[in-house]
């Protein structure tokens, strides 16, 4: 399912316009992004938690040239599924 399909599904189930649902979804996504940029986690009880994880610097190999390269440390976004979501998927 992509974003457009999700907007359509929510609009049908709620009776809201697709435009309203799309705007609300954009606000949700932007809010999660902004909190992650600030280094904060976002928890949605019953669904899961969006958080930042630290990835240490390491060496790698460029697959095109075979050269060894240094990959810098970085923060990466993660999603940890909540208890209810895990239970539904089993």
Describe the overall structure.
The protein has 90 residues and is α+β, with helices and mostly antiparallel strands. The protein has a single domain (3-89), classed as HU Protein, Chain A, CATH 4.10.520. It is 43% helix and 30% strand. It contains three helices and five strands; from the N terminus they run ααβββββα. A three-stranded antiparallel β-sheet has the order 1-2-5. A two-stranded antiparallel sheet has the order 3-4. α1 (3-14) packs across α2. The radius of gyration is 18 Å and the shape is elongated. It starts with a helix and ends with a helix. The mean pLDDT is 95.
Short description:
This protein has a single domain, classed as IHF-like DNA-binding proteins (HU Protein, Chain A, Irregular). Helices cover 43% and strands 30% of the residues. It has helices at residues 3-14, 18-37, 83-89; strands at 42-44, 48-55, 58-61, 68-71, 74-81.
Please tag this protein with its features.
HU Protein, Chain A, 90 residues, three-stranded antiparallel β-sheet, alpha+beta, two-stranded antiparallel ribbon
Give the helices and strands, then pairings.
Elements: H1 3-14, H2 18-37, E1 42-44, E2 48-55, E3 58-61, E4 68-71, E5 74-81, H3 83-89
Antiparallel strand pairs: 1-2, 2-5, 3-4
Helix pairs in contact: 1-2
């Amino acid at each position: 399912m992509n974003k457009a399909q999700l907007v359509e599904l929510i609009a049908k189930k709620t009776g809201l316009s697709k435009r309203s649902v799309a705007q609300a979804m954009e606000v949700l996504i932007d809010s999660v992004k902004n909190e992650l940029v600030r280094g904060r986690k976002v928890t949605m009880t019953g669904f899961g938690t969006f958080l930042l994880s630290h990835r240490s610097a390491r060496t790698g190999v460029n697959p095109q040239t075979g050269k060894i390269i240094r990959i810098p440390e970085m923060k990466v976004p993660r999603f940890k599924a909540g208890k209810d979501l895990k239970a539904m998927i089993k």
